[in-house]
Design brief:
This protein has one domain. Helix content is 74%, strand content 0%. The protein has four helices and no strands. The protein is elongated, with a radius of gyration of 20 Å.
Amino acid sequence: MLPAAALGMLLYGLHDIVAGAADLLAGTVPEWWAAAWRMLAGAVLALAALFVRASLPGGLALAVAGLLALQSISLHNDPHIYGELLLWPQASRAVFSAALVALAWFGWESAGEDGGTDSDEPGSPEWGADGQT
């Protein structure tokens, strides 16, 4: 579950970096800082995906911060681009973000249940009953 969550976060972050750059170059969003914010939040999420995959402390918190930043800039941009707040895209973005966080959380919890045993240690399944491989 942890690799799937990290891959989803990485792709989501990279998507928003590219989309923010396209918004900046095309002038889709009236404020330049909104496109820059989107690119920065996407970069934070992409970096957090690497931390989540490596199970570094604070990685999931950074990922949640990046996801919330992307949600907030999306809430800001909808009225400027479409003239109204679009409920279903916002709700689906929130559900997708929650699913990524849940995958990372449960993946992290299940990775910690095995006690971190290393396959090179005696007593691991690769070792025989007499301690020899």
